[in-house]
Every structure is written in structure tokens, then in C-alpha cells.
């Protein structure tokens, strides 16, 4: 299986960097019709940030592309509607088998012991006790059949079940005026999301897939499922979460991908 690797701008020349910028921005432009026009005008306008900088100077190109990425983040945050639901599907439309995807191969999937598992909760929350799987499963459960959209260009429909993240955040007394929620995972992955997305009604702490306990290859014991985000924003094997006003980036985001990551 092909393992996805993020592009590194430091090792390509200026002309190639502009081409890479256009390719990455084109991916972000491929949005639903309700966003497409504004997204196109904002993101393509960001290429003007390259004007006046030496495209033979990797540092200048890197800085310009970082500004474009930040512009994309701000634009997507402004366009995000926390009440707008992603499309849902039927059991007959589920992609079988649902694809495995990670920055490592399937034979390197992390195995987490269920009996000793504890979800660490820190930051701007009232209740910081570590959660067992039994406690998480005892909370009210929800399910959804939604489309996972990968930044590589493919998509798949899956059925996820678990705890609405908004319910969990309120249960632990999280400060929902905070800017970010961050995650650390057993496979050394990490990411962070904006609070409006955390509170979206379709954002789940997923504990099951297709009505069965979440398989290791899909993120056991728990993954964050957000149909409003691209796949790389949906962390698997979550071991810790924290609520904060401090930006903490992410595994792919720190390598040049948009932080907001809206689908």
C-alpha cells in the first residue's frame, strides 16, 4: 500500500514551489458549491503573496506559502457553519472494506490494551479524571454514516458510533470559550481542532465501527470522527486530549498542511 508523505518545500526549487502551491490550493478549492466561489477568490488571491519575493529563495517561498496557508485557515473558519450537517448515507452505501490510511503501513498498527486504557483529560476543564473505556461506553451513544474525505483525493463512506464530543466536553466542564482542543495518540500522531468544530453535532468520540468495537486499524480504542474535516484531522488511538487557548499545531500541519482542514 502506498504510504502518504507530505511534500517538503525546503527541497524543491522556487518554480516548483509555485507549482506545488497551486496544486495544494486547487485541492482546497474543490469544495461544495456553497463555498466554492468565495474559497476560490480568497485562496487564489493568496498567490499574489509570492509577488515580489525571489522564487529562487526557498525561505521566501516557504514564508509566502505559510501566509497562504494561514489565509486558507482564516477563510475556512469564517465559512464554517457549526449548524450545517454533513451528508449522511444508508447502510447499503457503506464502502466495504473501508480503507486503512496512516503515515505507516497496516502491519505497524498500534495495539492498545483495553484493560489498562485511560483517556487523559487536561487543560481548561473542571473534571480531569482519566476515563476508562467502560465509562465512555456508559455515556449516551450516537451513530452516523458519513463520508471520510482524504487529502490524497479519495473518499469512503463508513458507519461510526460513539459519544458526541460536545456532550463529553460539557460533561467534563470544558471551557467552551477556549480556542482549541488538542489530541495525542498512541501512534505518536497529534493534532488540534477549533472549538466550533469540537462542538459540531456530528463530531464524535468514535468507539465503534459498523456497530462493532472499533478495530485497531481504524483507531482502537477511540478516534475522533469529524465529517466536516479532511481525514488527517481525524486522529486515531487517542490517549490524551486537552482544552487550551494555545495553538499546538499537528503532525501534518507542522509540515505545511492547512490547520483548519475543512472538507
Kindly describe this structure:
- The chain is of the alpha+beta class and 263 residues long.
- The chain has two domains: 9-79, no CATH class; 91-255, Sulfite Oxidase, Chain A, domain 2 (Alpha-Beta Complex).
- Helices cover 26% and strands 19% of the residues.
- It has six helices and nine strands.
- The protein has helices at residues 14-29, 33-45, 58-79, 133-138, 165-171, 195-198, and strands at 120-123, 142-149, 155-164, 180-185, 190-194, 204-209, 212-213, 223-225, 238-244.
- Strands 2, 3, 6, 7 and 8 form a five-stranded antiparallel β-sheet that branches.
- Helix 1 packs parallel to helix 3.
- The longest helix is centred in the first third of the chain and has 22 residues, at 58-79.
- The radius of gyration is 19 Å and the shape is globular.
- The relative contact order is 0.16.
- The model is unreliable at 1-14 and 28-56 (pLDDT under 50).
Features:
263 residues; alpha+beta; Sulfite Oxidase, Chain A, domain 2; five-stranded antiparallel sheet; four-stranded mixed sheet; 9 strands; 26% helix; 19% strand; globular
Amino acid at each position: 500500500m502506498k504510504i502518504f508523505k507530505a511534500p517538503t518545500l525546503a527541497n524543491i526549487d522556487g518554480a516548483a514551489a509555485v507549482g506545488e502551491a497551486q496544486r495544494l490550493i486547487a485541492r482546497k478549492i474543490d469544495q461544495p458549491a456553497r463555498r466554492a466561489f468565495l474559497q476560490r477568490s480568497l485562496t487564489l488571491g493568496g498567490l499574489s503573496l509570492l509577488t515580489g519575493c525571489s522564487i529562487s529563495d526557498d525561505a521566501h517561498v516557504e514564508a509566502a506559502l505559510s501566509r497562504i496557508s494561514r489565509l486558507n485557515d482564516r477563510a475556512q473558519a469564517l465559512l464554517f457553519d457549526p449548524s450545517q450537517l454533513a451528508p449522511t448515507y444508508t447502510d447499503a452505501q457503506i464502502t466495504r472494506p473501508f480503507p486503512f490510511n496512516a503515515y505507516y503501513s497496516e502491519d505497524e498498527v498500534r495495539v492498545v490494551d483495553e484493560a489498562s486504557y485511560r483517556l487523559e483529560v487536561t487543560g481548561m476543564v473542571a473534571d480531569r479524571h482519566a476515563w476508562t473505556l467502560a465509562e465512555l461506553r456508559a455515556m449516551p451513544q450516537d451513530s452516523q454514516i458519513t463520508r471520510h474525505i482524504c487529502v490524497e483525493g479519495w473518499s469512503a463512506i463508513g458507519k461510526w458510533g460513539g459519544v458526541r464530543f460536545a456532550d463529553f466536553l460539557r460533561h467534563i466542564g470544558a471551557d467552551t470559550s477556549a480556542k482549541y482542543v488538542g489530541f495525542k495518540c498512541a501512534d505518536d500522531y497529534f493534532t488540534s481542532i477549533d472549538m466550533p468544530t469540537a462542538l459540531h453535532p456530528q463530531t464524535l468520540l468514535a468507539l465503534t465501527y459498523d456497530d462493532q468495537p472499533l478495530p485497531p486499524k481504524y483507531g482502537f480504542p477511540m478516534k475522533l470522527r469529524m465529517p466536516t474535516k479532511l481525514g488527517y484531522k481525524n486522529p486515531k488511538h487517542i490517549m490524551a486530549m486537552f482544552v487550551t487557548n494555545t495553538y499546538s499545531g499537528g503532525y501534518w500541519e507542522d509540515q505545511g498542511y492547512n490547520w483548519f482542514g475543512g472538507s
